[in-house]
């Protein structure tokens, strides 16, 4: 029997989507407002979902306090109020799209969880646009 627990978190961050080798017009055609050369911010809403067996002794799939602290230390501290392109190493050469941010979050959290636990990351860039990644 497997149960999934979910923890929500939030961060504000700035980004710019662009390719260096494209001019501003081509970047705007592909990335729209997200290619603004002066950057812009989003209010990212994150849901971290962990699936596994219920531990017989604790009754937990994962200790929510540990999960909360892990998300805070690894994600919120690293991303909140940052310019993702400029200040976060993972995006130095990686476009900080919602898709890529979700993969980076997954890759930061997965090694910190017990191997047997499954992880899924859901990231809202806007209330209507969101992505999910579960390591496949
Ligand atoms: Ni954007």
Can you give a write-up of this model?
- With 136 residues, the protein is an alpha+beta fold.
- The protein has a single domain (2-133), classed as 6-pyruvoyl tetrahydropterin synthase/QueD (Tetrahydropterin Synthase, Chain A, 2-Layer Sandwich).
- The chain is 29% helix and 30% strand.
- The protein has helices at 24-31, 64-79, 84-87, 98-109; strands at residues 2-15, 40-53, 82-83, 118-124, 130-133.
- It has a 5-stranded mixed β-sheet.
- The chain starts with a strand and ends with a strand.
- The mean pLDDT is 97.
- Residues 15, 34, 40, 42 line the site of nickel (II) ion (NI).
List keywords for this structure.
Tetrahydropterin Synthase, Chain A, five-stranded mixed β-sheet, alpha+beta, 4 helices, 136 residues
Give a quick precis of the structure.
Helices cover 29% and strands 30% of the residues. With 136 residues, it is of the alpha+beta class. It has a single domain (2-133), classed as Tetrahydropterin Synthase, Chain A (2-Layer Sandwich).
